Amino acid sequence: DARVTQTPRDKVTEMGQEVTMRCQPILGHNTVFWYRQTMMQGLELLAYFRNRAPLDDSGMPKDRFSAEMPDATLATLKIQPSEPRDSAVYFCASGLGDPSETQYFGPGTRLLVL
Amino acid sequence: SQKIEQNSEALNIQEGKTATLTCNYTNYSPAYLQWYRQDPGRGPVFLLLIRENEKEKRKERLKVTFDTTLKQSLFHITASQPADSATYLCALRGGSNYKLTFGKGTLLTVNP
Description:
The structure holds two protein chains of two kinds.
Chain A: E1 5-7, E2 10-13, E3 19-24, E4 31-38, E5 42-50, E6 53-56, E7 65-71, E8 74-79, E9 88-95, E10 104-105, E11 109-113
Parallel strand pairs in A: 2-11
Antiparallel strand pairs in A: 1-3, 3-8, 4-5, 4-9, 5-6, 7-8, 9-10, 9-11
Chain B: E1 3-6, E2 10-14, E3 19-26, E4 30-38, E5 45-51, E6 56-59, E7 62-67, E8 72-77, E9 86-94, E10 100-102, E11 106-111
Parallel strand pairs in B: 2-11
Antiparallel strand pairs in B: 1-3, 3-8, 4-5, 4-9, 6-7, 7-8, 9-10, 9-11
């Protein structure tokens, strides 16, 4: 049963610390998305990769967020320095095709910045 | 500006009844619309996709309609069960844009 995996599942950190979230997309999928979900804003797209190349990161605060795909099996989202307003659930999703019609979401990383 | 609205934040119905959820949008010309289910503590799960040239799609107890004139999609769950209780999200993709934009969701509770 192919799934998107994310680590860590939960993260509590203090303001100013670096946070790294990892995602393993489904093997063979060529698109990866990072989303942030909050009660106020819902699901917001942060970044999009196709064949490991970043195509859109317009949803990310550029000064503190960065997203990379060092290889086809790993996507990372980094926040440095973290702030309390970054507290949210971060989801990774992967898909196949361009554009991929169906996105398969991971279980999310719940981040709390104190 | 583009906007997606799901009719209510929460909907409570009795088991066995049909649940109807609404998704309205403005300033979009969507290539297709999707519905996802999200359970607490989990990521959204894809349910159905309906294209701009389709009026209706069915899958088991689920039915989706898409009216591009009204700019509205209706999502129906017939013979609802307590296990259908979850948050349901609609999402739209624009014509040539890969980006999926999600509504905030409707929390459905089916009471036994």
